[in-house]
Automatic annotation (TrEMBL), chain A:
Keyword Repeat: no
Protein name: Glutaredoxin
Domain Glutaredoxin: 16-80
Source organism per UniProt: Dokdonella fugitiva
Taxonomic lineage of the native organism: Bacteria, Pseudomonadati, Pseudomonadota, Gammaproteobacteria, Lysobacterales
Binding, [2Fe-2S] cluster: C29
Pfam family name, one: Glutaredoxin
UniProtKB/TrEMBL annotation, chain B:
Residue spans crossing the bilayer: none
Organism: Dokdonella fugitiva
Superkingdom, natural source: Bacteria
Protein name from the UniProt record: BolA protein
Coiled coil: none
Any one Pfam family match given in the protein's UniProt record, by short name: BolA
GO biological process, alphabetically ordered: iron-sulfur cluster assembly
Amino acid sequence: MDVIERIKGTLAGHPIVLFMKGTPQFPMCGFSSRTAQALKAVGADFHSVNVLEDPEVRANLPRYSNWPTFPQLFIHGELIGGCDITLELYESGELERLVQDARKA
Amino acid sequence: MSARVDSIRERLTVALAPLELAIEDESHRHAGHAGARDGRGHFRVRVVSAAFRGQLPLARHRAVYAALGELMQTDIHALAIDARAPEEG
């Protein structure tokens, strides 16, 4: 399957998706680690994609999302941001609200 | 002052006319990690610009990435961004 179709399929299949380096249990990058920690801290049930094991997604997601770096957090198919934005949202309490809304929808 | 920091400063200055601009090269703090093997650097920028008025964080970060253009592929591995409008301090 075309990589863009695969990305769309992943986003359609899960309300919250984190494209990251490594896994939430074994993150391979500090930024990915902090983003996954913030999601866990608000009790988010999220799907993660390890881009280090999927070079095609790693190469093509930045163009699809218009965002050059990883991690990338999506809620309902929409890019929320990378590490800095996710942590800002976490600190303001907004991340918890987004995660709760994603669960209801 | 490294050439990379100079390039970043120039791009951001031209694109965003910042009132305040601070760039830190944090590459040394990541020297051992897997992502640093390609030789690109880790940087942190703080940009205060009127261009950010009325923009959400996502749009501000995209504006910073757009200003840096191909440096994101050639020179920058990771970038921490603090983007604020002037009244946000």
